[in-house]
Amino acid sequence: MSASKVGFIGLGNMGKPMAKRLLSHGFEVTSCAHVRREAIEELKRLGLVELASPQEVAHASDVTITMVRDTHESEVVILGERGVLHGMGEGSTLIMMSTIYPDFCQRVAQLAAARGVQVLDSPVSGGPMGVERGTLALMVGGDEGVIEGCRPILEAMGRIFHCGGVGMGMVTKLANNAVLFVTAAILSEAIVLARAYGMAEERLLDIFKNASANSWAVQNWEFMKWVRDSYIPGDLGTTMGLAMKDLRTCLDVANRKEIRMPLTAVVSHLDWSVYRE
Q1: Rounded CA gap, 96 and 67, in Å?
Q2: Which active-site residues does the annotation give?
Q3: pLDDT tens column, 97-119
Q4: Over the stretch 244-260, which tens digit does the pLDDT of each residue have?
Q5: What is the CATH number of the domain that holds 79?
Q6: Which of 18, 48, 73, 115 has the most CB atoms around it within 10 Å of its CB?
């Protein structure tokens, strides 16, 4: 399949620049508005076509991408009334790029197969700057042949890492986020310690970048600090709130295999506001 028509559902902090990048690579992109119209109006000026519902977006597309907040929103836009799956034709492909439950992805794949629709799960890592550079890590679950058919779309945004069958992209992303945010927590504590003894944060980070404490979080600390400082207790709508949602999803998925993740559990309930300057 040579797919040129892409539906994109979810134009948030990551979805909007991802859709923008697809437009810049010559794909015909359609979408629909949810609540706020700023993102879709901006992208319409770049060539995006607005349709009335996820169902209509999917009907007009060879490949439909969903990039919404969580599993509940994914269920609404994919399986709900006027949802994506109701509009997809035989031979089309659904790519779920939100960070959601692996078993939900597998359920969607089973329902889609009955309609002749192919499914990939492909959560991403790398932040908005990774989108802009085209360097996202795309953790993809699904059939290799389906991935090949979608390769031009996926590689417009970053590098493909095939993780296994449908759902394994999500398992990989949840594991990645556990490492990232446990690292962010200990890094925040280390900065507080060094500052208390008179060392500037910038100096400490420069040392860490050249020492054994180096990591993606260290290399991209300004972005990680922005994410951390978006934290508002009880507010799951912030960037950090969504990250903590991912950690709790990870813990739930681990529990289903009777796996303990005590560090992740602690970090998932941290009051991140204590680290602000």
Answers
A1: 7
A2: 173
A3: 999 999 999 999 999 999 999 99
A4: 999 999 999 999 999 99
A5: 3.40.50.720
A6: 18
